[in-house]
Each structure stands twice: as structure tokens, then as C-alpha cells.
Design the sequence.
């Protein structure tokens, strides 16, 4: 089946200035395709560039180099004005439902704001009607419309954030660690909600998370990142069952399993710490932590290549 | 009978606020045998940290212990003066936190901080103290201890800071280590390293550990026995295998159901516990979990269940207990 491409990044680079004329290599030479209607997860440890990649992909922050195409249109080449109509097609849901909602606005106004900015409705009544529908869709009673964010629990606030994000009927939503700040029981409620809305609103998700369990539930495909580069990209089930990149294997292995019978199994642990993105290692960026690293890995950057039904960026993949 | 490192009986502690008394810990009893790792699991606000702070004598106004007993290796801690608690803290028992920065001094090199902790409790000279600190840094897996000795906390990564915290907690060879969400702020590969470290230290030194976590994976990997908390109360307790295999309280079942299995087929929807945690100032008349419990009966809404023993060592606070 031919899948329809929604978003496509080619050689995407994002660097930030750092002290002493150095640069933070947050996102380095990334090629990534997002298909319409899918959930693609970005996983990796903190600081590996997930949020930066997510924001660069939807042109919320400008790329240093490389291109992003949305439905075939090169966003990175558009002027601010020309980009305006695309902005509403791509929304962001944040991790922290506390910080992302304006504490001085009522819930009605928070959800109405994007509708008003983009002049979606003709009258105030119509806007309110839309807000009620949206709140209903995310499970917030309309009686609560006049309340302020602090009067809601974390889970409810995240629901309000979701209502705001879908208000403009975007095609793509970048969910940046949307449940990381929530307790497990509430986490499940929000994940279920996001799945329901995907069907209802025809959404494509770029789902950013450091939690591989959550990703397994949410994502059709997964892209594993390490220090600004992609390690492995492919169908979630395949990658969880047969990871080929050593980093993916270590990540999956490290997750504490809720089964006391596995307690005495000695895990093979990844040693050492994540190197700095200011001076990333030459060659494969993972080589300083990788037990299989060869001289080849230390000198030449491995490119993503097709292997066993997925893409993997490792010289040794398939042989280890 | 095993020798008990920690024995908590009927502990009550809470906050005296303008709006009334907040019963954060309500009638909690808990035992940690020597050399064992015991866990407390529950969602945020259920009172886990409050137990830890009560044991450590770290409650601050308006929080206070209002009843019960805490014995460390047979010695009663409730009612001790601050000075007496200070002598025990960091010596016979020590605590590590989620965020190591809160308990490290930002303007002092970490080695010096550890040396001073040692000098405070043990009569050794400075040279011997320094050697002991370096040895301890090595034991917790810090490479180049001489170099790290003179580092300031902000110069270290999150994982290294947590190792320093553990080294500092271990420096006087405590009988009890309390670890309150020790890996919640860490990445999963670093988390695995730290958990393994705590486990090995307990095995090597016979130290008892109280580990607090909201993560059932962490609990399963670490604990010999487990206490499940909800709204200030223990709702179920058992050895780890029994708890995971024969969970009886609907809340325990709900928590376990929300854990996403990495191997089982992916479900269309996740089982979720509906509703929210009750406000401790306005607890329901009956079981605190009843408003969220799909199996609650009329009795559950009006009467508070006691902890009942389902099998030796397996206790559950539910009228229905035993058939979840
Ligand atoms: N505005 C910025 N200025 C400088 N450095 C930044 C900025 N935003 C992110 N970074 C750096 O870029 C790297 C990637 O960050 P981020 O994308 O937030 O990672 P993640 O979301 O995976 O945790 C980190 O080293 C971070 O410190
Ligand atoms: N200063 C305070 N005044 C009143 N209530 C408090 C105060 N600090 C904490 N609490 C309440 O005590 C309860 C227990 O908190 P805590 O032990 O920190 O929970 P946990 O560690 O399980 O997340 C919470 O419900 C919290 O709201
Ligand atoms: Mg991020
Ligand atoms: Mg706590």
C-alpha cells in the first residue's frame, strides 16, 4: 500500500550557539518522513534533541539547514506570511499542562483563543458553541468553562491543552511528552483520549516520549534518537521485537519490568553517560558507550540504511 | 523471627493547616527486616514522602507526627529531641532524594561535603576521612574519584550527582537507606545503573533499604516486599511475588493494569482508573477508594474497611479482598 507523505525532512540540521563560539549540535542531518494518519514516535534520552526536532519540523523554530516539506510544500523556504496558512495545520501539545495554560484566562477563553485568532467563527455565540463541542470531545463538562486552570487537576489541564490543540482541526499534532508529568492512572486516560481523537479528527501525531512503554501503546512507527541523530526507524512491533541498533537494544533492556520474577536476571547495562552535544564524538555518536564499536565506527558516521524491514544507522547492525 | 531494622507501628502524621488537619499518613505500620529491600508504591500525594520524612525526623511545621511509633534497630525515634535525631540521621540511617541538588551544597566541592559528613559522626582524622571518601566514591562506581572529589555539584551530570548522593548517604555505613524516588528524574539507562548500584550495596553491606516509587517496574526489580498506599493509608501489603501474582485490592489491580506490557499484544485501549484522588481534607465516609472503584458496594461507601490478613504476610484493606 502506498502511504501518503504528510511531512518530510531532508538533511535537517538545528544548531544553537554555545559559549566560546561553539555550537550545540541538537539535531544533525536528519532524514525523516511522517505519513498521513500515522503516529510516529520520537524516543531517546533527555537532551538527545527530540523537542528541538519536533519544533523544527513544524517550523516553530527555524532550521539551521536542510528542508522540511509539508504536503509537498517546502516550509523552510516560505516567508513568515506565506507560512501563516500552514501554521494552523500543525499544533503542539506540551508536557507541562501547568505551564502551558495562561493562569489568568478562563477555560473558555483558552480554547477560544486560536478560533478567534484565525477568525474561524462569525459570532461570539458560535465560538462558544465550538468551545463546548471541543471540551465535550476531551471529556470536560461545559459547566466548567468559566473556571481557571488552577481549579483543575493535572489530567484535566492536559485535556484542556488537547482541546486547544485540536480547535483549528490541524492535520499534524506534535505531542511533546504529553503524559510524562501525570500519574499512571491518569496517563492511561489521556493516552486513550489521544487515540480516540486521532480517529475522530483524522490526526497525524508526532509523539515525543522518553517512555518506551507508552510509545509501544501509541505509535505505529518509532524513530530512536541518540545525541541529535537517528539510530533506527521502523514499525514499532518489529523494532521492539527485533531491535538491530545496539542503542535501541540497551534502551529496551533498561526499562524496569513490572515482573518480580525477572528481578535476578542480570541485565547488560549501558555504561557511562551521554556525551555532550557541544563536542559530539566523531563517527557514530554512540561509539563511546557502545560495546561493539570498531575503528570504522569511531571514524565514519553511519547513515540510515534499509535492513530487515526497517532503517538503521549502524555499521555493525546485522552482525552483532 | 528476622531481626528488624525498621519497625513502624500505627504511624500518623499530617499537616495542621488553616482549613483543618490533613491526615497525610494514617495508621501506617511497616517492617523492614535486616538486609531487605522494602518498597512503598502509590500515586503522587498518597503520603509516601511523608512516611520517609517522619522516619528521618525531617517534618517541618505545620507537619507533625501525631501518633504511633518508629523504631530503628529497636530504638524508639518518636519523641527524640532534634539533637538526638541529628546524631542518628546520616549515621544510622540516611536518605536520598529524587533531586540530588536539593541536598548537596552548591558552593562546596562534593568530596569535601562527604568528608565533613563523615567527620561529623565518626572520630577519624582528616586524612583517613579523605581516603574513606575516595574509597566510597569508587564503590559507587565513580570513575576518577580524585578528580570528582574537587568537583562542584553543578559540574556533574544527573547520574553522577545521584551517585555522589548515594556515596554520601553510605559514608557512615547506615543500617537503613531511604530512597525517595531515586531515579524518577533520570534517563532509563542511567536509572538501571543506579538501581543496580543500590541493590548491590544492600547485598554487600547487609543494609536495609526503603524504596519509594510510583513506578511498579522499579518496585518489581528492587523489592522483597511491597506496601501499596492510597490516600494516606496502606491498602495492600505482601512479598513482591505475592503482590504481583495475587493482588487483591482493586486499586493495586488498577495500578498494575495501567502498566503497559512490552511483550503482550497491544490493546486498543488502556485500562484506566477513572476519577481522581480524593482531597485529604474531605475524605469520603467509607473506603477512600470507593468513588473510583468499579466494584464498590453500598457498604464500601459508608464503612471504612480495616486491613485484613488474606494469607500470612498478605494484607488487604477491602471488604471484598481476596477476589480481585
Ligand atoms: N534554545 C536553546 N539554546 C541552546 N541549546 C538548546 C536550546 N534548546 C535546546 N538546546 C540543547 O539542545 C539539545 C537538545 O535539546 P532538546 O531538543 O530539548 O532534547 P530532548 O527534548 O530530547 O530532551 C540539548 O543539549 C539542549 O540543551
Ligand atoms: N505543607 C503542606 N500542607 C498541607 N498539606 C500538605 C503539605 N505538604 C504536603 N501536603 C499533603 O500531604 C500529602 C502527602 O504528600 P507526600 O507525602 O509528599 O506524597 P507523595 O510523596 O506520595 O507524593 C499530599 O496529599 C499533600 O497534598
Ligand atoms: Mg524535550
Ligand atoms: Mg513524594
Sequence:
Amino acid at each position: 500500500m502506498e502511504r501518503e507523505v504528510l511531512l518530510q525532512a531532508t538533511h535537517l540540521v538545528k544548531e544553537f550557539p554555545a559559549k566560546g563560539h561553539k555550537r550545540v549540535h541538537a539535531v544533525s542531518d536528519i532524514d525523516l518522513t511522517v505519513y498521513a494518519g500515522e503516529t510516529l514516535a520520537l524516543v531517546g534520552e533527555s537532551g538527545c534533541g527530540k523537542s528541538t526536532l519536533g519544533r523544527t519540523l513544524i517550523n516553530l523554530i527555524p532550521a539551521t539547514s536542510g528542508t522540511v516539506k509539508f504536503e509537498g510544500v517546502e516550509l523552510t523556504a516560505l516567508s513568515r506570511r506565506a507560512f501563516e496558512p500552514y501554521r494552523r495545520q500543525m499544533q503542539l501539545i506540551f508536557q507541562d499542562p501547568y505551564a502551558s495554560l495562561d493562569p489568568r484566562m478562563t477555560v473558555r477563553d483558552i480554547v477560544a483563543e486560536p478560533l478567534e485568532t484565525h477568525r474561524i467563527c462569525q459570532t461570539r455565540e458560535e465560538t462558544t458553541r465550538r468551545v463546548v463541542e471541543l471540551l465535550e470531545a476531551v471529556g470536560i463538562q461545559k459547566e466548567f468553562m468559566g473556571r481557571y486552570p488552577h481549579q483543575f487537576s493535572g489530567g484535566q489541564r492536559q485535556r484542556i491543552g488537547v482541546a486547544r490543540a485540536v480547535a483549528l482541526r490541524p492535520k499534524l499534532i506534535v505531542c511533546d511528552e504529553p503524559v510524562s508529568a501525570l500519574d499512571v492512572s491518569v496517563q492511561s486516560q489521556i493516552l486513550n483520549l489521544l487515540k480516540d481523537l486521532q480517529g475522530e479528527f483524522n490526526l497525524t501525531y508526532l509523539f515525543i516520549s522518553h517512555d518506551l512503554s507508552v510509545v509501544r501503546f501509541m505509535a505505529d512507527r518509532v524513530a530512536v534518537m541518540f545525541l541529535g541523530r537517528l539510530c533506527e526507524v521502523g514499525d514499532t512491533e518489529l523494532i521492539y521485537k527485533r531491535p538491530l541498533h545496539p542503542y535501541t537494544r540497551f534502551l529496551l533492556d533498561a526499562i524496569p519490568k513490572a515482573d518480580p520474577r525477572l528481578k535476578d536476571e542480570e541485565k547488560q547495562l549501558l555504561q557511562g553517560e551521554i556525551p555532550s552535544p557541544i563536542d559530539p564524538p566523531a563517527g557514530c555518536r554512540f561509539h563511546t558507550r557502545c560495546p561493539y564499536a570498531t575503528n570504522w565506527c569511531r571514524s565514519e558516521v553511519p547513515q540510515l540504511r534499509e535492513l530487515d524491514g526497517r532503517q538503521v544507522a549502524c555499521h555493525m547492525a546485522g552482525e552483532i | 523471627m528476622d531481626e528488624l531494622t525498621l519497625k513502624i507501628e500505627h504511624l500518623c502524621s499530617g499537616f495542621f493547616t488553616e482549613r483543618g488537619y490533613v491526615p497525610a499518613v494514617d495508621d501506617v505500620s511497616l517492617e523492614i527486616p535486616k538486609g531487605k529491600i522494602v518498597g512503598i508504591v502509590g500515586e503522587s500525594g498518597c503520603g509516601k514522602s511523608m512516611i520517609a520524612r517522619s522516619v528521618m525526623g525531617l517534618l517541618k511545621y505545620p507537619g507533625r507526627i501525631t501518633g504511633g511509633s518508629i523504631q530503628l534497630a529497636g530504638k524508639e525515634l518518636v519523641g527524640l529531641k532534634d539533637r538526638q535525631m541529628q546524631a542518628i540521621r546520616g549515621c544510622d540511617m540516611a536518605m536520598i532524594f529524587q533531586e540530588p541538588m536539593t541536598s548537596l551544597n552548591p558552593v562546596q566541592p562534593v568530596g569535601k561535603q562527604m568528608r565533613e559528613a563523615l567527620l561529623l559522626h565518626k572520630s577519624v582524622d582528616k586524612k583517613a576521612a579523605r581516603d574513606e571518601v575516595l574509597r566510597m566514591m569508587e564503590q559507587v562506581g565513580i570513575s576518577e574519584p580524585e578528580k570528582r572529589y574537587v568537583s562542584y555539584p553543578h559540574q556533574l551530570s544527573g547520574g553522577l550527582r545521584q551517585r555522589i548522593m548515594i556515596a554520601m548517604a553510605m559514608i557512615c555505613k547506615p543500617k537503613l537507606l531511604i530512597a525517595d524516588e531515586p531515579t524518577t528524574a533520570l534517563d532509563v539507562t542511567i536509572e538501571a545503573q543506579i538501581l543496580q548500584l543500590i541493590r548491590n550495596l544492600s547485598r554487600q553491606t547487609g543494609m536495609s533499604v526503603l524504596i519509594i516509587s510510583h513506578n511498579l517496574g522499579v518496585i518489581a526489580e528492587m523489592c522483597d516486599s511491597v506496601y501499596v498506599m492510597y490516600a494516606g493509608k496502606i491498602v495492600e501489603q505482601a512479598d513482591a511475588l505475592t503482590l504481583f501474582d495475587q493482588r487483591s485490592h482493586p486499586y493495586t489491580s488498577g495500578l498494575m493494569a495501567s502498566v503497559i506490557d512490552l511483550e503482550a499484544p497491544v490493546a486498543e485501549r488502556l485500562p484506566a482508573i477513572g476519577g481522581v484522588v480524593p482531597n485529604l481534607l474531605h475524605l469520603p465516609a467509607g473506603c477512600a477508594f470507593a468513588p473510583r472503584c468499579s466494584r464498590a458496594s453500598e457498604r464500601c461507601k459508608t464503612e471504612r474497611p480495616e486491613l485484613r490478613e488474606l494469607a500470612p504476610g498478605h494484607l488487604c484493606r477491602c471488604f471484598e479482598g481476596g477476589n480481585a
About this structure: Residues 4-92+174-316 of chain B form a domain with the Rossmann fold fold (CATH 3.40.50.300). DSSP finds eleven helices and twelve strands in chain B. The longest helix of chain B spans residues 188-205. The CA atoms of residues 309 and 315 of chain B lie 4 Å apart.
